[in-house]
Amino acid sequence: MQTPQDMAKLIPLKSKEPPPQFIKYASHIGRLAAFLQHHEHRNKDARDDNIIEVRRSDAEIAFHLGISMAALEQCFSELIRQNVIRLRGAYQIEILNSTRLSDFARLKP
After folding, report:
1. What whole-number distance in Å separates Cα of residue 59 and Cα of residue 100?
2. Which one, of 42, 59, 62, 58, lies nearest residue 91 by Cα?
């Protein structure tokens, strides 16, 4: 069985070396990706585009995922840096690459 850190090494990054915070937060990124994927599937019927609505504050999302606010910020930053998501507003997140989001969701412990 692969650990989240081993899985993180398998996902190709834009740069040659993964940033240190990526490996540190690999399982947290997996949790956030799975959370976003869940909302993507819930909102699929309502909208044709890849924009999902998450009506929770960052603090509520962090609490729900069982991670710190700092970890949540790093996770969002990494998914944005990898061109997986884009923040569209206070409660809207655009999924740019569903396949990559699924790859990151597999990092969940």
Report:
1. 25
2. 58
Q: Please state the φ and ψ torsions of residue 2, each to the nearest 5 degrees.
A: -90, 140
- CA-wise closest residue to 99 among 6, 25, 5, 11: 11
Pairing of β 85-87 and β 51-53? unpaired
Instruction: Kindly report the three-state secondary structure assignment for every residue of 23-61.
Output: HHCHHHHHHHHHHHHHHHHHHCCCCCCCEEECCCCHHHH
Residues forming beta bridges with residue 93, ordered by sequence position: 52, 87
Whole-structure pTM value: 0.75
List the chain pLDDT tens, one digit each, 109 residues: 445 555 455 555 554 445 555 577 888 999 999 999 988 877 666 555 788 888 899 999 999 999 999 999 999 999 999 999 999 888 899 999 999 999 999 887 6
Cα separation, 63 vs 68, in Å, equals 7
Q: Which tokens belong to 10?
A: 């398998």
